[in-house]
Write a structure and sequence with these properties.
Shape: globular
Oligomer: single chain
Largest sheet: 9 strands, mixed
Strand content: 15-25%
Strand order of the largest sheet: 1-4-3-2-5-12-9-13-6
Structural class: alpha/beta
Length: about 350
């Protein structure tokens, strides 16, 4: 089943704006009815594919969407007949992690989806139905309909192959020169995280799509996650950790590349430059000089990028609930014994 949607160079305003061309094989059957599906991302050295899909089958996900980067694997036809609940999405060219997740979400319809990598194993959490039951709690959606899931994303505990807990909670730090994050190990239930480390987590599909998913015009995985996390919190969503679900890496996850490049400029325009006033946000022209000085574009190109950012902020202006400093203050880090100040700013030695 082909899909022929071209990527856009402008900031996406809808979820499906940057979906690439792809082909689908399999996925004819539904495995369960727990309300939780999986989006499987693939990279590096792989586990035995048979073992991997047998484990996903035992968890009882409603369905699985496996994103297959080029070149196409020789075993897909055989696996699709052996595991009819798996939908293999064959990419025609390499795309970013955020785009892969968006694409996977577009191919499933479960209320919740679990983003996983092929080098992860389930350590604790039970089956899909049990995970949904553990994470469900009474809540009300924006249209007044009673729901049982209130978070945009729930982040599991992540461990090494030796079952050592990794510092996967991301805390925003907002110094004057460069915005970045610090990492903490999850020590109790419900601690906030700016974004799901490595993209791994259980997401509410309706909230995810309503937010626009990941920004496919960004290519850096780090800045995609930063943009997603800041946007989520600026717009009043919640990303928190759970102790009840644990995963372990068979191989170490790649380090985060925090390099400041054009993706950072894009992130700055969408998340840090807008000014929040009572019930709406706007991007004032007085932010342009800083944007111009920090970037590598000439004046004309920089102004075009800035104007595009202003249009995007204006289109979404009533979705803001707070400003970046308010986001930083959400982390009461004294409670977790971290040396960072409660306001998320750099502390002096």
């Amino acid at each position: 089943m082909p899909c022929a949607q071209n990527a856009m160079s402008t900031i996406p305003t809808t979820f499906s704006a940057t979906l690439p061309s792809y082909t689908v094989i399999g996925g004819r059957e539904r495995l369960g009815s727990a309300g939780l599906s999986a989006v499987l991302l693939n990279r590096g050295r792989r586990r035995t594919r048979l073992d991997l899909f047998c484990e996903l089958e035992s968890v009882g996900f409603d369905s699985v969407v496996s994103i297959e980067p080029p070149p196409v694997q020789y075993d897909i036809e055989e696996l699709s007949s052996q595991f009819p609940f798996v939908r293999f999405v064959l990419l025609k060219e390499a795309i970013s992690v955020g785009e892969q997740i968006n694409l996977g979400v577009s191919e499933l319809d479960a209320p919740l989806f679990f983003v996983l990598w092929n080098n992860l194993r389930m350590v604790a959490g039970g089956g899909a139905r049990r995970m949904v039951e553990r994470l469900s709690c009474p809540a009300w959606s924006k249209d007044g309909v009673r729901s049982t899931f209130k978070r945009l994303c729930t982040v599991p505990v992540m461990q090494t192959s030796r079952f050592e807990t990794l510092p996967t909670l991301r805390v925003p730090v907002l110094p004057r020169k460069k915005e970045h994050t610090r990492s903490l190990s999850p020590s109790s239930e419900g601690l906030r995280s700016l974004y799901p480390a490595d993209g791994v987590g259980i997401y509410d599909r309706e909230r995810f799509v309503g937010m626009g998913g990941f920004d496919g015009t960004l290519k850096s995985c780090y800045w995609q996650l930063m943009d997603f996390g800041f946007r989520a919190h600026l717009w009043g969503e919640e990303i928190s950790a759970t102790q009840m679900i644990k995963l372990s890496y068979e191989t170490s996850p790649p380090p985060e590349d925090m390099s400041v490049d054009t993706d950072y400029q894009h992130f700055y325009l969408k998340n840090l430059a807008p000014v929040f006033r009572r019930d709406y946000a706007h991007l004032p022209l007085c932010r342009f000089p800083r944007f111009l000085l920090q970037g590598k574009e000439n004046v004309l190109d920089a102004y075009r990028s800035f104007s595009e950012g202003r249009r995007w902020v204006h289109a979404n202006r009533f979705r803001w609930r707070c400003d970046p400093r308010t986001i930083a203050s959400l982390w009461n880090l004294d409670a977790v014994g971290n040396e960072q100040s409660p306001l998320g700013q750099e502390t002096s030695a």
